[in-house]
Amino acid sequence: MEMPLIGSRRASIDILFDVLTTCRGRSLNESAIMAHHSLSNQQLNRDLNFMSARNLVQSDEDGRFGLTSKGELAFDQVSNVYTMLQNFQATSVG
After folding, report:
1. Which residues pair with 58 in a beta bridge?
2. Residue 78 to residues 46, 47, 84: CA-CA distances in angstroms?
3. Which residues pair with 28 in a beta bridge?
């Protein structure tokens, strides 16, 4: 049986991309991000710490997260890869 490239059980990269997508162009608090993606507090903290340490997201004085310019670039790059994988998956013979 062929495994789907994307769209099956969420891998860490899927969750990271989801958070990047959600934070793009807006600032959200942890509760909003957690609820939007059905993440546990532990998962969200792990991922936000990972992305903050790499300067992809930053929080403001109110604790709201948004993308940095590096995060915007990462979003664009990962988005292109996701689109390519979706196209591969759609055209695969199986």
Report:
1. 66
2. 19, 16, 10
3. 65
65, 68, 61, 60: which is closest to 45 by C-alpha?
65
Q: What is the pLDDT of residues 25-64, one digit of tens each?
A: 888 999 999 998 888 899 899 999 999 999 999 999 999 9
Looking at the domain 12-80, which fold is it? Arc Repressor Mutant, subunit A (1.10.10)
C-beta of residue 37 within 8 angstroms of C-beta of residue 23? no
Domain ranges in the chain are 12-80
Q: For tokens 């909003």, what's the residue? A: 32
Could you count the other beta carbons within 10 Å of the beta carbon of residue 58? 16
Beta-carbon contacts of residue 47 (< 8 Å; ≥ 6 apart) = 12, 15, 16, 19, 39
- Residue reference for tokens 């934070």: 23
- pLDDT greater than 50 at residue 88: yes
